[in-house]
Amino acid sequence: MPTKPLLVFVFFTSMAVVSHASSLRFQYIDRRHNFTAKQASTSSSSSPSSAHGSRDRRPSFALVRRDAVTGSTYPSRRHAVLDLVARDNARAEYLASRLSPAAYQPTGFSGSESKVVSGLDEGSGEYFVRVGIGSPPTEQYLVVDSGSDVIWVQCKPCLECYAQADPLFDPATSATFSAVPCGSAVCRTLRTSGCGDSGGCDYEVSYGDGSYTKGALALETLTLGGTAVEGVAIGCGHRNRGLFVGAAGLLGLGWGPMSLVGQLGGAAGGAFSYCLASRGAGSLVLGRSEAVPEGAVWVPLVRNPQAPSFYYVGLSGIGVGDERLPLQEDLFQLTEDGAGGVVMDTGTAVTRLPQEAYAALRDAFVAAVGALPRAPGVSLLDTCYDLSGYTSVRVPTVSFYFDGAATLTLPARNLLLEVDGGIYCLAFAPSSSGPSILGNIQQEGIQITVDSANGYIGFGPTTC
């Protein structure tokens, strides 16, 4: 049987980097990412994490890919990619609808007679973590979502629930489950909460397309990476429908007070870090790092008062190879009414850019790679190549230029997505509305630290 040729991607930019890749994964001779920061180091008053020692006792999790939990099988890799793209489109549309200025009008709690609709077609995310709920802990898979605040899990008695990999959580079996009273400070923190018949706090969280999770708000003990944390406010969902496919609920890591990071407060230092793996397990670590990774680039977070749960970054431009694209200066700017901007999102796979920016990036990439054989586009991925007959190709790097003169240069594995045997597509797409989204394909393999307490996000040199 003939051996499939090893495909080698050779970067060309101002600093040449050589990397090796097969159809399954990218492997690097030089495993360092190209991170550069032209500004001086941050002052102590606004510095993100600081060094306090070498031991790391922070709660940590393995981040598991969605398909590893759901057991999804596909006839071919193309079918798997088409499924991912369909979920991705739904997620991007959900974010666009949620982050449009028209969506910021406050809504009241709709009460116990709310209509239950099917869906949750927003694409709930590609990464799961294992969390223990209650005492003794019941192990559950939860979707990791950096754009959501509320932590919730499907609960008995379940009036309407979707299928999940684990048995439903039963509050009656937990010694630490405590219903949140109606009118309490915790209950009032939620925008959509109200009083149940029993005097407890009922919650409802909408996901943009009319779908939602609905039930009772409670205080419960969560076991996070072997560490038990008491008194965490979670939603105990008695009505939930959608396409979470295997997960028992959602672990919100957003910037709001009801997210896990927000509730942990000083215990977590307002920070968490993660490393997404294209295959196998990645990692999620709660809390501030005890040491700043050498070579990390810190980018200021941008707060959108109209959408305070999301992590925005100030992007000033994009480069292909060593050339900066000629784009309008305000193309990625967050406007006063909360429109535009650039959101970091773990639930979206393919990075979305304004049409003008995407067209410039695509055209520069196509010109740089030259006469490589093109392949038909695959759904929203319109720039594809048939590299099945090649042992090596030359591709340019793509760089993100952030406010504050920091630059993140991506390796080839964060640019090209294999959609079939030897067929690779540029993993970027245009967006006609809503914010730009920095997706998880572009984040893979990079140690990312979100330090919301100090208002920074860090891109570190560690790979996973």
From TrEMBL:
Region named Disordered: 37-58
Comp. bias regions, Low complexity: 41-50
CDD domains: cnd41_like
Keywords annotated in UniProt: Aspartyl protease, DNA-binding, Hydrolase, Protease, Signal
Keyword Transferase attributed: no
Listed Pfam families: TAXi_C (PF14541), TAXi_N (PF14543)
InterPro entries xrefs: Aspartic_peptidase_A1 (IPR001461), CND41-like (IPR033873), PEPTIDASE_A1 (IPR033121), Peptidase_aspartic_dom_sf (IPR021109), TAXi_C (IPR032799), TAXi_N (IPR032861)
Entry annotation: catalytic residues: 145, 345
UniProt-listed PROSITE patterns: PEPTIDASE_A1
Single GO MF annotation: aspartic-type endopeptidase activity
GO annotation, biological process: proteolysis
Span of domain Peptidase A1: 127-460
Signal peptide: 1-21
Record-stated family: Belongs to the peptidase A1 family.
Cross-referenced PANTHER family: ASPARTYL PROTEASES, PROTEIN ASPARTIC PROTEASE IN GUARD CELL 2
Entry protein name: Protein ASPARTIC PROTEASE IN GUARD CELL 2
Organism: Zea mays
Gene giving rise to this polypeptide: LOC103645762
